[in-house]
Each structure stands twice: as structure tokens, then as C-alpha cells.
Amino acid sequence: MDASTVAYYACAILSFVPALVLHEVAHGFAAYKLGDPTAKSAGRLSLNPAKHVDPFGTVILPLMLMVLNMPIFGYAKPVPYNPSYFKDPRKGDAITGFAGPCANLVMAAVAAGVAWLLYPAAPAIVANPLGECFYLMFLPMFCLINLYLMFFNLIPIPPLDGSSIVALFIPERLLPKWYSIQRYAFPVFMICVVALPYIIGVNPFSWYLDATAGSLANLMFPFRIS
Question: Which value, to the nearest 10 degrees, does the dihedral of the CA atoms of residues 67, 68, 71, 74 take?
Fold first, then answer.
């Protein structure tokens, strides 16, 4: 394994782990501020990655996607929350659901902001191998991975965060069933995301993420991200 490959994997790990951890912490923090202590009691407001790692979603799936040269995304252990603590369960569920993607957008914006801040000094920065790795590999990758996670989770299909908007239109008596579906559907859905494109010969998820996350990243950065 050459130095560029090692740098690529190092940047991918350093980008992916915080993106996932802060995504999940944002869910738990939003629920906590809305009156639900479940995530806090479970220790899921911690920034310690070990509290959030899911063996398949955090490790195996991202590695598979990197090897297959597909957009890198995955998931951590879903943060537990109990909508019955919310004054308005539907509104609280939507706020909690969208807190994760919002956190990813903020992190992507921070990476782009750093890139713009350092842009006048870019020639000197990239003249150093470590600076080149940071500026031309890590910052774009950190931004892209966060945007991939954001746009992927905004798909309004259970159990993704975008499905939280659906709860606004579900009768109250059916909400418990809806939440149970969201809780247990994620691993099955993620397997379908990886397997389905090879079965049908088309990868709609990759196209969608390139069209959304990829396009936005290029608008945000002072240079084009390939």
C-alpha cells in the first residue's frame, strides 16, 4: 500500500467518524432540549466514538463502499429517543430527525470556510506534502462525506431522517407503529442500498448523491472537487 493510499484511508476515517458521531449526538441533543432524557441517560450525548459505533454501519459498510469506489456513507447506532416526552410528538420527531443532517451541513460549511480562509496561501500550503494532504484531500473529503450523509438521510423513506416529516401526517394512534418501523428498518435498508444497484444494474443512490452533495460541495469550495 503506497503513501497516497494510506493518506486517503486516513483522511476518510478522520472525516467519516466525526461526521457520524456528531450527526447522532445532534439527534440526542435535540431530543434532550425538547424534554426527552433517553439519549442522555444512555450516554449517547458523548463525543466518544466508541459510544456510537455500529460494527456494520460504521466500519464494514464504509470500507465496502470505498473498495467499490462508491460515495462513502454509513450509520452509527441510532440514538434512542422517546417521542412521548415531547409536548408535540410530531413536531418534536421532525426537529430531532433533522438535527442530524443539520449538523452535517454545519460541518461541511466549516470545511469549506477553512478552505476559503486558506485559499490565498494555498500555493505555499500544497508545496508541503502534509499541507497538500490536508488542503486538497482532507478538507474536500470531510465536506463531501458530511454532505453525503446529510442528503442521504434526507431521503423521506423509513428509517432515514427525512421520513420524520411523514410523521406530521400520520394519525396519532399509528405513531407508535411508525416509530417501531423506523427503529428496526435501518440495517435492512442499508443492505438494500448496497445490493440493489448490482441487482438492477443502476445505482440511483450514487447518482442522487453526486447530483446533490457533489454539486453543492463544488459550489461551496474555492476549487473544484472531483
Answer: -70
